[in-house]
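Reply to dn_fold:

You asked what the input looked like. This is it:
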Amino acid sequence: MERGGRAGILVVGGGLGGIAAALSALALGARHVVLTEEFPWLGGQLTSQGVPLDEGPWIESGVGSRSYAALREGIRDGYRRRYPLTEAQRRAVPFNPGMGNVGTLCAEPAVAVRVIEEMLGPWQGAGRLTVLRRHKPVAAHAEGDRIRAVTLRDLLTGRDTTVEAALVLDATETGELLPLAGVEHALGAESRDDTGELHAIEGAADPLDQQALTWCMALSHHPGEDHTIPRPEGYAAFRDFRPPFWPGPLFGWTVSNHVTHEPLDRPLFAGDSDAPTLFDLWHARRIAWRRGFEPGFYDSDITVANWPQMDYWWRPALGVPAADAALALDECRRCTLSFLHWMQTEAPRHDGGTGYPGLKPRGDVLGTADGLAQNVYWREGYRIVPEQRLLEGHIGVAARPGATSAEPFHDSVAICAYRIDLHPSTVGTRDTVDIDTFPFQVPLGALLPVRVENLLPACKNLGTTRITNGAARVHQNEWSIGEASGALAAFALARGVPPRAVRSRPELLAEFQAALHRLGAPIAWPSYGALTPRTRTGYRPPT
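and this is what came back:
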């Protein structure tokens, strides 16, 4: 085992939370940060998992993290500088390169990767940031209530490197450092008796009650061509699967409405219009709009398939033996490939025919050979047991009768906005949960483990419940959580105090919140209303 030296701050996980954590720590004066990432691309759910930005309704209002706004503007600027856009698209406000209707900025993952590299580049050049790609944590070394070091395996060479650090941030997609380091954590579903939440499960908590996984893929469409993939192993079982709460087979154009659970028709194509009201599957997460470029430059739109028919919940992938986890991930991949094969060969067409053989997997767009993303889309993982747990009663509209806003926190360190959005569960009998929330604050207490002194969560692994994780897990919110954790690490390290002292000492808390303000990381919302199905994304057509 090689020694990897010592860092002031070690950020394990290069998703959006990890990127934001590294940037905020460096901006607040950290002298050396080590950032690690398992996959070739930095950016996590936005890039290696292939999920276009899915954000709150006020994302274009200017309220939110300054560094996150820089990421978004960098993506738009990358298109304006490098791509042959039409004049109408170049002038569009807001400029949405893919014209997907899940949000106001749907773009190709590789563009975001380049912007992230540009944001990190100056710190690497200054020798203050070291980035270890293709490195996965395999062990954590604890002494009492502190994490002394983390061992990382180079997935290309198989060699192990141990990095010591004064402060360790877990920004992995599943909170995988928590069980490795013996940090108190939760997994799966808490019970209503424990949390008092309206939508928590009855009876005992169940760590194996986890949200569905999705292995996203990128597709273009070329009528008259045949890009049919071979029939995947287990195809018939996926094609014929009928969930008990679904209106028919999972593979079909009629799905369960995410909010009401009534049958909802969601065809692949509802035509070749680009009206923003066209909510077929193709337009949902379209990342390249061929009509937005000079004629002929793109011969097809490109969309990311992250659709209800691809949700996989046959078995959990966390908290189970390694062989069971590997089987779950393999089945998840085959579920996506099976849905593609079904669309190409058996799906009812919008014009009355059968099958869309012209659907072409676009691995070139996702950095893979088969058209699937580099990593599965993880919606939840291990979560710390914190000093202050964020509950449905703090943010849910129905859980706060008579309230007009979320619970205010005196120790707020970030703001988030998204509905509570849970996908079907691995118990196999429960449909989605999609309920109204108020825009909310993240208390510092939700970033502090109850015992361990020098580990902080910087992704979806903060002190939420499984219910409130459904509102915290998306791109913008993950960034804000990571930004707060990175800033806290640098602030505490500079003053020689443990992070929890910043919460327990009023003068340090006030100083830290002022530092966040200067950083451009807001801790309070203006007076906005609730997030209802109509205000989920705030999409507006370009003018």
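The longest strand covers residues 2-12.
Hope that clears it up.
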